[in-house]
Design goal:
mainly alpha, 3 domains, about 0% strand
Length: about 500
């Protein structure tokens, strides 16, 4: 093989290695949406437990993303990238073998930690090997390949669940992860300049505690109540640990979180826009993964196909983002992305059980385009005026904020869906002439993974009537959750006004 061909092959494998982690993460993010309903039935998971199968991943990424970047500086990107893939494979095995919900949640948290290593190392490697416009194109390609993973994830997941069961979705992660692991082990540079800075382990512990003390009470408040001692105590702990974390990071020599980046003009509003984009995007995904199964009665394969317009729009938008952002200006591009996102979820908030599927698919595509446009624009604007020596710290904090948005988006949607659907169900039962057991219906709606299992003691007529009430109440809860997401999109549009122009 000639030197030029060998060089092109090496470049191809290097780009594949950089994009491998985001591709795996994208594939896993959407395949879990297809698997939620069968997982709930098999593991007897309530709605509040079910959301942890998705939000646990975001918590793992948000908590360890910056730490993974610091460890990459200490030990090299090749080591951390391969470590992330090894951990992801191990967590996938644990997920596939999970005997109960507790083990599954732990496995998802570990997958999130592994995802943090893969994301941070991919961004770092892309920054090391590309400069200028090539670096921008590389980052857009990373996002596009994540979108490609989202495209094939639901399809592969749907096929595997259709022919096997939900556990096959996680077994399928192994061959894909193994291929990228071997590629990166061989292609990524072995010798790198590493930092001699000390790792802020205390900061990691404080950050982990702070994130969990926020997400846990928000996600469980629907069951516990906002004024319950557990909820109130955990939120109080969040406030205390937040103060301790800030004080510690301000005094330590090599902090995990460099809060000085928050003073750079435009960084905070751009990062908050990204937070809202993730909040909306993952909150929407959680709602519709359940809606398509419970209300529309789709199986896993049909659910996977339903998400295809979203994935295609996300992938296409990732390829076009760098060109459109430069053509329109990044602030206008951010505004466009948030508009598409708000219009997409807003159109879906008008649904009922008879809404035609083409309406859903158009809404899904708008959400996909808006999500990737807003995300890429916010990333560029957050880094636009950042001093070069702080760009790494700024990128890490911005990415952490995004993934925290995903975890909170799912948690808040669970809270809204739990409260509004149960209230709607109780009202419908009270107004109807049907003599149906309300406690059984409420339990079926949010406390158990399978409606049919809870209703099997009823007669055929009562079961049909109960399912009609359940789907109506569940649709009402989904609609109210989507309206909350529309409000978040409107808040994002306001925040765009506080983002300075790239040339100002």
């Amino acid at each position: 093989m000639s030197d030029s061909r060998r060089s092109r092959l090496h470049s191809f494998l290097l780009i594949g290695g950089i994009c491998g982690g985001p591709f795996i993460i994208g594939m896993d993010m959407l395949s879990i949406g297809v698997a939620l309903a069968p997982m709930a039935a098999d593991l007897d998971a309530s709605l509040s437990t079910l959301q942890w199968f998705m939000s646990g991943y975001g918590i793992g990424v948000a908590t360890f993303l910056i730490s993974a970047g610091k460890l990459a500086d200490l030990f090299g990107t090749r080591v951390t990238n391969c470590l992330g893939m090894f951990l992801f494979a191990a967590a996938s095995v644990l997920m596939a073998l999970a005997p109960n919900s507790s083990v599954a949640i732990g496995a998802r948290l570990l997958q999130g930690v592994a995802g943090a290593f893969m994301i941070s190392s991919s961004i770092a490697i892309g920054g090391q090997h590309f400069e200028g416009a090539a670096r921008t194109r590389m980052f857009s390609l990373i996002m596009a390949l994540a979108g490609l993973g989202m495209g094939v994830g639901p399809l592969i997941g749907g096929v595997l669940i259709h022919w096997f069961d939900w556990r096959a979705v996680f077994w399928a992660n192994l061959p894909v992860t193994f291929l990228f692991f071997v590629n990166n082990l061989l292609v990524l540079p072995r010798k790198e300049r590493v930092s001699r800075a000390r790792f802020d382990s205390v900061g990691l512990i404080l950050l982990s505690a702070t994130v969990l003390l926020l997400v846990v009470p928000v996600s469980q408040a629907g069951e516990w109540g906002w004024l319950a001692p557990r909820t109130f105590g955990l939120l109080g702990g969040f406030c205390i640990f937040s103060v301790i974390l800030i004080l510690w990071e301000r005094r330590v020599k090599d902090p995990l979180l460099d809060f000085s980046v928050l003073t750079v003009r435009g960084y905070v509003p751009a990062s908050l826009c990204a937070f809202l984009a993730y909040f909306i995007g993952l909150g929407w995904l959680f709602l519709f993964s359940l809606y398509l199964h419970h209300v529309r009665g789709l199986n896993a394969l049909e659910t996977g196909l339903s998400f295809l317009p979203y994935a295609v729009a996300y992938f296409s938008g990732g390829l076009l983002s760098s060109h459109l952002g430069r053509f329109l200006g990044w602030r206008a591009f951010l505004f466009l992305g948030l508009c598409l996102l708000a219009v997409g979820v807003g159109s879906l908030s008008l649904i009922d059980r008879q809404t035609p599927f083409w309406w859903l698919e158009v809404g899904f595509a708008l959400v996909g385009l808006g999500y990737i446009f807003a995300n890429n624009a916010a990333m560029s604007l957050a880094q636009g005026k950042m001093p070069a020596e702080k760009s790494g710290a700024a990128s890490g904090i911005s990415m952490m904020i995004r993934w925290l948005g995903s975890a909170l988006g799912i948690a808040v949607m669970t809270l809204v869906l739990h409260g509004t659907s149960r209230a709607a169900l109780a009202e419908e039962v009270a107004q109807s002439d049907l003599h149906l057991p309300l406690p059984t219906l409420l339990s079926a709606l949010t406390e158990d993974g399978s409606w049919h299992q809870r209703l099997d003691s009823l007669s055929k007529t009562e079961e049909a009537q109960s399912l009609d009430l359940l789907t109506s109440a569940f649709t009402h809860g989904v609609d109210r959750g989507l309206l909350v997401l529309v409000g978040c999109g409107g808040l994002g549009l306001i925040l765009v006004g506080f983002v300075p122009r790239a040339d100002s």
